[in-house]
Every structure is written in structure tokens, then in C-alpha cells.
Amino acid sequence: MQVYNKKPLTIDQQIAKLENRGLEFDDKTSAANYLSNISYYRLRAYTYPFQDNDDPENDHRFIRKGISFNDIIDLYCFDRRLRALVFNALEKIEVAARTKIIYTYSIASNDSHWYVDDAHYEEECKFDILEKEMGDDIDRSNEDFIKHYDQKYSQPDFPPSWMGLEVVSFGTLSKLYEALKKSDSKKEIAYQFGLCDVKIMENWFHALSNLRNCCAHHSRIWNRRFMVHIKMPYNTKRSFMDRESLRNIKQNKIFALLSAIKYISDIISPGNSFKTNLIQIIENGGQLLSLKDMGFPENWKQLGVWKES
Questions:
Q1: From 18, 213, 275, 291, which residue has the greatest number of CB atoms within 10 Å?
Q2: How far is CA 56 from CA 61, 64, 66, 183, in A?
Q3: Is the pLDDT of residue 203 over 90?
Q4: Calpha distance 277→86 (Å, rounded)
Q5: What residues does 236 pair with on adjacent strands?
Q6: Contact (CB, 8 A) for 75 and 288
Q7: pLDDT in tens, 70-99
Q8: Has this prediction a pTM greater than 0.90?
Q9: CA distance 272 to 283
Q10: Burial 286-297 (b: 16+ CB within 10 A, else e)
Q11: How far is residue 106's CA from residue 217's CA, in Å, rounded to a whole number?
Q12: ω before 156 within 30° of 0 (cis)?
């Protein structure tokens, strides 16, 4: 292994380095201002696709001529706007997921604390680990209703589901749903989101919670290859996509995730503007934006879930 010995660069040195690699600058004063607020290394994620990163002797030179610093900023801003749009939609999906899980199981079991009863979970579920994760999330909560429960009640240790599951992370909620036994209640939740297969619902919660974390931490999403691949459903309550299109969708790219978001949004928030806002963001994405890199097929606007308003 090598020893890391690179020295920090001043902003002027950062600009000189990028210029030597072939990036064009129309206004270096403006570029310096951007680099004082957006780190050089963060912007590297947006210059990387346009550089020769395979040949170290080439010093990561830009592959094609005519790319300017402003083009990179346009791409960065597109990604930021896309994250904001996605994060807003995911908030509604997450809140709906909490509501449906809490309500469905509370009514079906007639038990305020059903979520800490291991009888509801698959035998192979390591319930002690899930219970600890839920407990840690609840203990970290600063909500008044959690404090009120702890001050007023000594038993059970956990608050009722309509309190406890409101403050666990989306990732923890996703793990809970996946660990639940197959039941009418679990199927009902999937069906309320327009899905006929609980395995697809499990996967969607997992993939969307992962995407939510990327957005919350301001990570690049536009051309990311996501570690959690989202599964494409062939059997849905409403129109999603035809089978031929589904076979060609890249399940590790953002378009697949956006399609799931659009599908659920149309169910829980009829008349939403997700598609309209997405198109507007794309139209202002700048000259470097490639929908192909995001997994968009050429005819995406004519595909089932996207064809509808």
C-alpha cells in the first residue's frame, strides 16, 4: 500500500490544477467564490465522469474540450435540485409508511405495543437486534410525547407504537416491515401502496430509505450506482410499466427509484407535481446532463407510471 502524501491546495492552486487538466474558466473570481463554499473534493464527483481517470500519467485530464467550470456548477446545481425534489417526495412516503404500518397492525392486533411482541416477526428475525435498534432510536428522540410517556408511565419500557414508530428512522422502519411475518396486515400495507407482493414492498422501503439517507447527507444521486437495487414489479394495482420496458430498466440507477417514487406519490398524493417539477429540473440541467447516465430510457415519458398525470 502507498503512503498518502498529497499536500492541501489553496483555492488559487485548485483553480490552476483544474485549468491545467483542461477545464475552462470564464470568471476565476466567481470560481474562487464557489470553491470557498463548495469543496474541491465535493465538486470532484461532478468532474470525474468527464476526466481520464484510468491513466495516472495523464493527470486526470478532461476527455473532451470545451467543458467549463460553469458547466460543472450547472450539473452540481441540477443534482442539488433533484435531491430536494426527491427528499420532499420521500418525506410524504415515509410519513405514509409509518401511518399505515402503525394503524394497520394496531387495529388488527388490538395491541398498543404490538411492535415489541416477537410473535409478529419471522422466526429467523433477530428480534433482539431490531428491538435494540428501535430502542436506541426512541432514546435519541427529543419529542415531547416521548418525554411525557417516560415521565408518566413505568411500564411497558417502550411507548405505544403510535409514539415509538413515529420517531424511529426510516431505515429501522424498513427493517421492521421486512422482519414481520407474512400476514393479511402485511399484505394490506403493500396493497395500500399499490403493490401486490410484500417482497417488492420490503425492497422498495429498503431502497427508498437508502436514497433518503443519500439526500439527507447531500450525496450525489444523479448518476450514482446505488448499492440497494430496487426491484421492478410486474404485478401492480395500477399501471406501472410494460414487461418489455421493465426488463431494460437498470435497477441500480436513479430512474428506477424515481419511478417507484412517482408510482407511490400518485397513490398517496393525487394531483402531485412530481413529474412536472422533475421535467423542469431536467430542462435546466445544463449541457453536461445525460439522462442515459441516470438510467432514463428514451421513451420514459410514455411509460405507464410516467404517462399519467
A1: 18
A2: 10, 17, 22, 56
A3: yes
A4: 10
A5: 195
A6: yes
A7: 999 999 999 999 999 999 999 999 999 999
A8: yes
A9: 19
A10: eebbeeeebbbb
A11: 33
A12: yes
